[in-house]
Amino acid sequence: MALDLYQRLGLKRGASEAEIKKAYRSLAKQLHPDRNKDNPNAAKRFGEITHAYDMLSDKDKRARYDRGEIDEEGNPKMPFGGGFGGYSGGASGPQPGAQGFENFNFGGADGADLGDLFEGLFGGATGGRTTGGPFSGFRQRARTAQKGADVAYRLKIPFEDAVALKPQRITLADGKTIDLKLPQGLEDGTKIRLAGKGQEGPGGRGDAIVTIEIAAHRFYTREGTNIRLELPVTLKEAVLGAKVKVPTPEGPVMLTIPKGTTSGKVLRLKERGFVGKDGKRGDQLVAVEVDVPSDDAELQRFAESWNGGGNPRASLGV
Asked: 239 partner at 20 to 30 Å CA-CA among 118, 147, 178, 315?
């Protein structure tokens, strides 16, 4: 019997979000294809646990799975337990307004020829191909071969790579590696579908679904398509103005600090941010922070003798 999503992660139903995340990280380190190149079973298990984590970390999917509404692959379960919803057969046949089987949606039974099953049960099977009757339309739909299951992956990428949309190399569950092109409008949680990279099935291969996680950066933060940087400058640079070197995700550039700049002033580097869905690029916002040393004797003597500056809190009414 196939393991359910919780069992794949070695957990019991009711596990907390933290327990699910911890279990996935531990198993992913053990089973990652890069560490098990000679073990195809490990690659298969890696795909299974990643899919399980992707399902259980989505609150809506997890709730539907726990209620039994969807299966381990995220597909709706057959609703036979509730009856045939509208078919009221009997000695006199279907009642007026009842829904015929030829138009009834049996939801997800593509892999089985249920037309034969129902015809046999209700005495309509002839042993040969039917050309009409209430099950003919259903038979035609039911014979559609089902594709293999989709396989879920999570890919954590560096902040700078996300800004520059740098292609990422990813190892699939079968051990093959591909270069993944990042789309415009990339966000944390963006899902990228790779057609035909999932599991094999009667109707062909399913897809790979890659969920992107953008790593946090130690000094950049994101604001929509813009990025923000807090830039320390010396008191001299702020008072007299200066040209200073500033980091950007694609390398340092020179930035002019205007004369008399105060802490909190925001300067702008055009088109150094994320690329939006419309192809337009955001900016890098540079918030200036004037760094005042606490142990500079010369600066302390100057401040003691300086009577300028006025009242910078006047606008606050104090």
From this structure: 315
